[in-house]
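Entry for the shared binder. Reason: the reviewer on the internal report wants the predicted structure included alongside the sequence.
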Amino acid sequence: MDHSSNQLLPLETLRAFDAAARTGSFSAAAERLNLTHGAISRQIAKLEDWLGLKVFERNARGVTLTNEGNRLHLRTTEAFALI
């Protein structure tokens, strides 16, 4: 996706990412945030499109962070601690 430095992701996208990273599951993240699985999946797709890389490996048991996803999760955890 073509984006400039002044275009930020919506906070709900980062919240969905954080919840999925913490729970290891889009379904559990959806339950935690009172959203649907589809809503979480769309937010993660938006994030991956915006970044131009995968942040999760998907499998039958849930999701695990990629190396890039781990780095992003460290940053989002720091950012959420400041908010």
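Summary line for the report: The first helix runs from residue 11 to 23.
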